[in-house]
User: Fold this.
Amino acid sequence: PYRASSLKRDLLATTILATLVLAASGPRAYAQEAGGASTSGTIPLPEVEVTSGQGGGQGEGTGTGAGEGRNAPSTAYSPPAVSQNTTKLAVPTFELPIAVNTVPEQVIRDQQDFTIDGALENVSGVRAANNNVEGYVFNIRGFDSFNIFRDGLKIGFSIAQTYDTSNIQDIQVLKGPASFLFGRADPGGVINILTKKPLGAYYNSVSQNFGSFNLYRTVWDFTGPAQLPLLDNGTVSYRFMGSYTNGGEFPDFISNSKIFVAPALTWAIAPSTTLTVDAQYLQQAAQSFVGIPAIVTVPNSIIAPGYPAILPVYRSFGEPNQPPDTVSSSLIAYQFRHEFNKDWALTNRFLYARGNLVKDNLTGGCFQFDPFNNDGACSDANFNLLPGQFLVRNVSYQKLDGTNYSANLDLTGKFNVLGAKNDVLIGADYFYQYFNYILSANGNFPIDIYNPLYGTVPPWAFSTAPYSAWTGRCDFCLFAANGQKNLGVYAQDLITLWDKLHILLGVRYDLADVRSGSVNNFNTAAPFPAFPTIAEAMTRFGTNPLQHSEYASPRFGVNYEVTPWLAFYGSYTQSFGAPNGISTNSLPLPPEIAEGWEGGAKVELADQRLTATLAFFDITKSNILTPENPNDPFSELRPIGKARSQGAELDVLGKITDQLSIIASYSHITAKVVQDNAGLLGLSLARFAPNSGSVFLAYDFPADSGLEGWRVGGGVFAAGRRFADDQNTIVLPAYARLDAFAKYQFVAANVRWSAQINVNNILDTRYYPGTDSFYNNVPRLGIFPGAPRNIIATLRVEY
Assistant:
């Protein structure tokens, strides 16, 4: 059951495409400036690549005009030479003793990834644990991470959204304990989204996708110089990006409608000073896919693991009359940069975001043989599902309202002392996050997962869920609030000797305040002020005292270039992690901390067009909360847990030849609990894959092959057997998925035209990429199947 495409939507897309074709013949089409004609009689569009002095295509430097950045026609699989939004130093990543992995825009375009989940499958050691509505939980090097950054600024999990790729230039993953640069962070690493900036030359494109599961998606990107009164021509440039998506979800009873808009403006205030302001707005309405349950293969066994139930991949345990969940978020950010001279620069970044999530869906509670006759208790521990048993569902209502502020100020500079070159960074950052959260559950609505009978949930069960929550008439009610304030100051120096030896020294000091509280009945909460401080907001939801933490994080690393194309590196980092809240006797608990050792090698070949990083790592995360009494999960929690992740990763990116590009990865990880008091000692952490990898190739046929204009490619994405839960009772099977694409492009009427087809999961492999651990269900009831074989057709015009 999918919604059909409307005539109005088709007419809109046709009008946009027709308008672009007519406009392309005007004076703004950069194709008219192309010199000469090809042997085929078409006018070749130039492969424009505009870069800034220091920004590596990310708009960091000022250059000679507003809006530097890589132009869209480039097909290179290569990271920016320098990405200060990720490393905060204006030096090549080849010289740094850290691992930074990049997914370029061209990879995203070749694979037709609509959100960052698919794009990050190309990076070693990164796995998504997201559903189709929210999207901010990833597992990096064995540790679950909520660390999503946008142009170097954090977006906390108070802002629910999937991350659309229509305004993304690159996605970078800074591996290891990265809180030195980004504040409180989980030790596996951080994901940094680098957005497209305005360009100083005109470039426009529109893409139209059609595909399986009634997919319909329009993507646009318009950029160039803006003519504004009182300002010189060329000092201001604009970019307007966005997408509209409808359909594309394979499970039953799930519709999807999403609009994403992202404008940006860059002003070259002076030759050495630029200001970029950008915003984005997202609105989505879609039923959440809550996953499928696990079953055990041996009845009544306490040691046999559970596996995903063998069901049709499209099967949903929602209902046809279930209303869509809604997500809306808005964001505005700026980046100000002033270069005092060629060596010293000041960068200030700021981001403000608001988000709202409302969910009214069905989630699983337990299994019973005969729930209609109350044959037994609905126990969370009961997942011995046998034929004839029922999944007992309840109507779950969730509402999340969040606010997010992020800012930093960085001073970077270069100087020489006694023959040693110094690249220094001095900075400070601030992060504020506050959210209100409501969760309620009502009713028992059983369903046979093998022979489901739909239509048993009356419409009033959904429509009255919010009223039941607010009035305290729910079977389970929770009203909670959380506020965080983090302030950090940091300094580091990259010392270079003999142009080969790079020594990185740094230290960071953090001050963090966290306050949270919850009540089971909103009527008992205190009055709520219009603009609450953290203390006022927390008073409404309990009286937990403020938790204040301070922590110093040192950093040390060495990188030695044996040859111009080979470097070995090693590093040690400490990090300041998640807060642990307050104990039952109102004593603050120490926050999670981590330390990481890393070493490896970096390679740059073929005139730096092909790069590879081999990393070996050892990370320990301490102060993980565990029950004081292992036989009572509700007993006092103590920070006595510790987990350790060790492994090796390999990432390759670039062009093997002028025609053949590659992005590839492999990771081998062992992540276990090494200290615990709750029966988990020695068990593996959940959701990471001990062995996983990917290889994706793209080939451009040369002009003399007779197939000029064709680009083809494909690859495999694989993961080994892995555990879905902390108790290691549920296993997700190993899998390998095969994808491929073919694209043809040509130039006609001064417009670049292209048609592309992607076939994903060619062999129709049944696989399970992850589980729900945060949104709706516990992992044993929320296993996400991967999409079956599907096709995406794309038409694109550029001028």
Residues 20 and 721 are 49 Å apart (CA to CA). The first helix runs from residue 7 to 24.
